[in-house]
């Protein structure tokens, strides 16, 4: 029988101690997020759209996390950063990077802000792209892939190279003024229709002239340096591009002293090509009657001046793909149409 002390019986007490091989970090063990850290003001975005605002690692010793996978320091316009420390922080996936190749990314991690190669991928720099806040740079060349390096093709300008800044060239022009009497000699200008510029003034004393033959050939063509459009959308977000002369109008203007109420005679060119065209644009009218001027005929000596003008409008259009809205299957993605315009109507007095 157990010995008694002070009137009580004493018995042995069994104490069980359970040892654990799991280390504790921040009061937690590995399966319960020992090295888990959440970020309320930051996140990374995986390809495919999944977001993550926490980092993790393995608790190997009490309050010691190893193999950490934190949410790395922020890089502007970078969706997915990767690092093991602040010094090797880099971007693996920029905003708007549909594919890591030319004409498929709105931001590039392969260049710095000066357009130099960035093999450490410390930046996401805006590239020439389909986005309206960037520039399409078409027709033009993004020399270093970045938007700030856009060089528009000569004859084009504006944010997206969408504005035509170059005049058309007049290659041939002749105006022949005739009277109702077929025996009268016609009045022709210029002297050399193949070299119509500069334009001389032609004088005549024939006051019975009542119609004209007008013939002009113009051309608007530039050396396009841009990457060719990609019909399928695989090699460029621009899928179609056309430019050139859109239309032309032949005009005859009669000036008589201070009288400014004499109506103008206008004839729209009837082009023989699909427009716009970078090829020769022919504008011909074989019998322009001066009916609008009947009340002012015959002409008056020393007072009347007739001016022959060709008014050309250059323009065009392009189609492109919004890769943000349609990141896959570019062959079937909708095309967006944008107009290529001239800065103004460019009349040529002949």
TrEMBL record:
Keyword annotations from UniProtKB, A to Z: Disulfide bond, EGF-like domain
InterPro entries: EGF (IPR000742)
Disulfide bonds: 152-161
EGF-like domain sequence ranges: 133-162
Transmembrane as UniProt keyword: no
Protein name: EGF-like domain-containing protein
């Amino acid at each position: 029988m157990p010995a008694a002390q002070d009137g009580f019986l004493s018995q042995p007490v069994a104490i069980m101690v359970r040892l654990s091989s799991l280390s504790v970090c921040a009061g937690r063990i590995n399966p319960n997020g020992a090295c888990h850290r959440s970020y309320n003001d930051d996140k990374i975005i995986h390809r495919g759209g999944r977001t993550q605002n926490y980092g993790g690692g393995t608790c190997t010793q009490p309050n010691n996390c190893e193999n950490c996978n934190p949410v790395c320091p922020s890089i502007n316009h970078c969706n997915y950063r990767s690092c093991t420390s602040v010094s090797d922080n880099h971007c693996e996936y920029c905003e708007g990077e549909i594919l890591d190749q030319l004409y498929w990314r709105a931001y590039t991690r392969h260049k710095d802000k000066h357009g130099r190669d960035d093999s450490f991928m410390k930046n996401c720099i805006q590239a020439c792209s389909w986005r309206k806040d960037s520039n399409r740079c078409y027709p033009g060349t993004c020399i270093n892939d970045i938007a700030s390096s856009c060089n528009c093709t000569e004859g084009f300008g504006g944010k997206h190279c969408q504005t035509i800044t170059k005049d058309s060239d007049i290659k041939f022009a002749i105006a022949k003024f005739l009277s109702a009497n077929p025996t009268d000699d016609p009045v022709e200008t210029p002297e050399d229709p193949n070299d119509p510029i500069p334009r001389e003034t032609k004088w005549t004393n024939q006051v019975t002239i009542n119609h004209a033959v007008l013939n002009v050939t113009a051309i608007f063509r530039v050396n396009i340096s841009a990457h060719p459009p990609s019909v399928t959308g695989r090699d460029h977000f621009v899928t179609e591009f056309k430019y050139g002369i859109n239309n032309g109008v032949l005009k005859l203007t009669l000036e008589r002293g201070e009288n400014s109420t004499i109506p103008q005679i206008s004839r729209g060119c009837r082009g023989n090509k699909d427009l716009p065209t970078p090829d020769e644009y022919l504008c011909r009218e074989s019998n322009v009657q001066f009916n609008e001027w009947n009340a002012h005929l015959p002409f008056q000596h020393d007072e009347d001046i007739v001016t022959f003008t060709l008014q050309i409008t250059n323009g065009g259009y392009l189609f492109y793909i919004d890769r943000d809205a349609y990141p896959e299957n570019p062959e079937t993605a909708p095309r967006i149409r944008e107009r290529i315009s001239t800065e103004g109507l460019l009349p040529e007095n002949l």
